[in-house]
Fold this protein.
Amino acid sequence: MKHWFLRFISRGIIGCLTLGLMVGACTAAPQPTATSQPTAADKPEEPVVLTMGSWRVEDVEQIDRILDRFHEKYPYITVRYDPTSAPDYDAALLAQLKAGTAPDLFYLRSYSVSRGLYEQGYLAVLDDLPGLKANFSAAMRAPWAADEGQSYGLPFIATSHGVYYNQDLFDQLHLSPPQTWEELLVTAQKIKDAGYIPFANASGDAWTMAEIVFMNLAPNFIGGREGRMAYLNGTRCFNDASMIKAFQAVKDLAPFLPENQSALTYTDSQQLFVQGKALMMLDGSWDIPFFESSNPGFRWSIFAPPPPAGQPPYITFHLDAGMGMNAASHHQDEARLFLEWMTSAEFAGLLGNELPGFFPMHTNPPALQNQHANAFLQLNQGRGADVRFPWEKLRDGSPDGYTLIQDGAVAVVNGRQTPQGAADALQNGLAQWFTPAQACPK
């Protein structure tokens, strides 16, 4: 797989500060370095149990296998995986930190949420962690670094966005993955005419309309990272023509969603796809294990959300999760030992292959065995890539960019708001606190 990453960088599709499983950002790629094994402290008289918090309740079996490998190396340290459901995770973790009952180690959201925990003093500084700077580029560390540069989280998981599709029924209907947005809408109409649901997506769980519909489509309409940065630096207003087109794309999909989609959940959408009732689903690479374990009885794969005709293609490749260390942990040495092991090539290989679709961010990435994970990675070839639109800076105030986008996307897909109205609400909401939105050209 390494040749893919080198091509990825050589095309400059992410730029100096962005993402992908990349080698050294915009500087020359560093020579591969051997990762030293962590050096254990003197073995304590009693075994040590570390707890690890997470928002991934689906991954217990796979994470436990990874943790068992660490335990084999350090038998006196046991790491216990203790996840919380994703919607409850942030609030539960903050409550635990305030009460002094938080895990020793825990998953960190990228950018604003984790930075807030750091600024409140809940996260240990990891600048001197062996292997951190040697095995992760500055671009990979950036989502878990303070403005002054201190690292408070270890880069852990990246995820990709795309469109799952039923290959067997595509073949039966003589369809191919579309190359333009206009072709996608024509394909959706053909699927609907054939008696199937074109897209499984629904708005009953509002977050899905934000994260896996709007944020999946938006890069192709706003111009990828370059376009996103233009909003962040005040060059563009958040209700400009490009943003209106992004919300219009959400509206374009409305006729092709399931009947009564406003009452359907994310789980309902997954089932519509695996049952063969819906032929496409906008989603993320994190669902590879679910779809594989569902054994749907048909061939499936992934294609990238296509851009409007004549426009360059982009994709959302998100730096999703870091690993943080509780500054109040009673087992600092053992927790740091575990984090040091996470920087190793051994851990990267275990992560990428135990959890296909969760991509390690190590400078020298491992070879992946899963065909669907590799299919997602191949979508990055020839496309610009960027993180989810509101993650950087736009979640720092109130009303935050995530909520404004979520509310707008749900309202647009259900016919309660126009794309112009959703974009105006985004601009006006952010202008209440975000200085670039106040200074943008009117």
Remarks:
- The chain is about 40% helix and 15% strand.
